[in-house]
Amino acid sequence: MVVNADNKQVKTIAVVGGGSSGWMTACLLNARLNEDPRRPVTITLIEAPNIPVIGVGEATVPSIRRTLKAIGISEKAFMIGADATFKSLIRFEDWNKGEHFDHPFDRRERPNSDPAVLSWLARNQMGGEGFSNRFSVLSNTSTKGLAPKALGWPEYQSTFPYAYHLDAVKLGKVLTEFGTENGIAHKLAKIVNVEISEAGDIEALVSEDGASYRADLYVDCTGFSAHLAKHIMPETQDYSEHLLCDRAVTMSVPYEVHRPDRILPYTSAKALGAGWLWDINLRSRRSLGYVHSSAHLSSDEAEAELRVIEGRHADNIEVKHIRFKTYKRNKSWHRNCLAIGLADGFVEPLESTGLYMMQFAAQSVADILRFNRHFDAATTNQFNKLMQTLFDEILGYVALHYLTSKRRDTPFWKDATASHRTPAALQNLLKEWKKRPPHDVDLLSNHRLFSLESYEYLLFGMGYMSEGQINAAPVVFDQTDMLNKVYAKFPEHEDWLSSTLGHIK
User: Which spans are transmembrane here (predicted)?
Assistant: First the structure.
């Protein structure tokens, strides 16, 4: 229970809201905070029964491997249960008409390759050989349809970073079973009242059947509805002026309906007239989603376009329409209420950052409370700064995809690429990057999701080249030997999946 208004001790945590976000948060907190059995923390997850869930294919970033390993679940069990496949990169198509580029997860060998990057840039300012093809191994292996690791390698390990495509609903079920088996109390209850103390803390949660739930720390994982956070820290900031997309129409295509030639080890993000289309390959189905701007395309029009793109076999497949907003809560943690995931904020689905922001928040809270089970206003203020910095970084990087596009062929692209859409933190950098390539000095935070290489893959892939002449001596960065070794060792993506996880439908 709360000790006093200023310094709160955490012996009990209530996570409200299930699904992949709630259960991953609860499992991670449980694993990290209960490493020392002498100072146990009781964790209870409360979720309403029979709440409809939106089952879409989810793409992730490589940090999810660290999170799942920390939780303690095996990679094989997770991948089977969540219908998961590998993800080595995102392939962007038609963000400049008729072109594509990759944002892979591997980093080139630095600093040895830095002179070669300048050499490439000096000779390719008007276009030419793809940057990722020259400097990324995973860009080449993905084109060949290879897995990012060899058969028999240890779980969660590879020479190269990788992530997953997964079914978020199935992941939630996997973590529900794992979490309850490892000591998390699971309560099915619909919370209808949040009792607030005079000091401004949550005092108790009251369910529909009259039961009362009390804890030292309440974690809101209830999505956009933010059932707890809206009472404690209601102020939010709308960032839709920077990112126009606010809708998605999604479709799942089972392989028994239509099976592609191969299950791709990467996410496809294809630009369309009023947004972009994701294509994610799971073990049993493909997940498609047309992310679009409702100001430029209606939901019915987006659905019709999606069905035409997919083909006649999709005529009878049900679609789902999703509304979202790009926003951030002014405070992520205030007093004894912590908002995580969609309850705290969201940047549109491009670059697969949703689950990452949730993981980062849960991991940070675990690190804060791991050695000292107390928190106060200084703790929450520092956490809030951290989460706002991360949000601003992700917002800016996602906005770069639109701002650097040369497309102006539809009203959406004319609007999305307008200079006034630029977040404040990027305004000077975009001017600088026209004069010179990006540099580490441009990226100030130690807690960054996107490295210098991520900016290079995006800016050079989009042809956002320096206006000034770059003088650099010819330098060769040759990956031939490495690629030959990888090609000889890494199997086809489907071969790894079937050999390790079992038969693919």
Answer: none
